Amino acid sequence: xxxxxxxxxxxxxxxxxxxxxxxxxxxxxxxxxxxxxxxxxxxxxxxxxxxxxxxxxxxxxxxxxxxxxxxxxxxxxxxxxxxxxxxxxxxxxxxxxxxxxxxxxxxxxxxxxxxxxxxxxxxxxxxxxxxxxxxxxxxxxxxxxxxxxxxxxxxxxxxxxxxxxxxxxxxxxxxxxxxxxxxxxxxxxxxxxxxxxxxxxxxxxxxxxxxxxxxxxxxxxxxxxxxxxxxxxxxxxxxxxxxxxxxxxxxxxxxxxxxxxxxxxxxxxxxxxxxxxxxxxxxxxxxxxxxxxxxxxxxxxxxxxxxxxxxxxxxxxx
Length: 318
What we know:
By secondary structure, the chain is α/β, with parallel strands linked by helices. 38% of the residues lie in helices and 29% in strands. It is built from 9 helices and 15 strands. The strands form 2 sheets. It has a 9-stranded mixed beta sheet with strand order 14-13-12-11-7-10-9-8-15. The protein has a 6-stranded parallel beta sheet with strand order 3-2-1-4-5-6, sandwiched between helices. The radius of gyration is 20 Å and the shape is globular.
């Protein structure tokens, strides 16, 4: 039985419900500051609640600390958990600071505890299947990549920096699985305060990628997400619209002009993440999907994008 302590009642409440649903976990306690939220969690999920983070950090029974705090607090409390010999599962991004992430990584190696970062796109069914098809060269070599997110301002502040950090990050992780680290990024954006548009091009030798994120759609608009990977012998395309009338289209266009509609059994991304987490902890192994060093590579791209936006010019990586 993996015993879990959760810091935060935003995403933390969703995580708590998933841990309760799946076998092999026991949520020992969840931390929060909002007494009303804590009472609701205690009553509906029958989980002990606390307003003292150290009650979780110092609890010797807890194996895993799940961090769902504001990003500015992630590194600090990841290190506190590691110092108390606990594994860490952290919402993205791990940190706004690459130097902080390096400190967390160094400590995790010293205390021999894992830090898992919630790079959940790899567990999204369309993304997962696309990665496998690309790695198996079913369509030949990749020539170009395009992905997008579009949303109304339903998520709080999503000005340029937060848009890049919250939305671009997962697309970069998906891109890294397919094309690896780019040589150069160039990003353009418009900041409307709590809303923004940001479009990033990423250059590779003889390959090209574009990532778009919009947080300025009219209120009531669906949440749109999608991607297209063009290859030598076809292209893989996924478009989804989530809202009042949700719909998904996942297709493979072959070079002979035929269209194949892909209809896999869609699985819950977050549930798959938690099951993978369980397997890693039970087997005592490092994650190949939620790896902290992979998350740090994504942070390198993120930081280059932010520099490009500030300098209004392309930024080299390397």
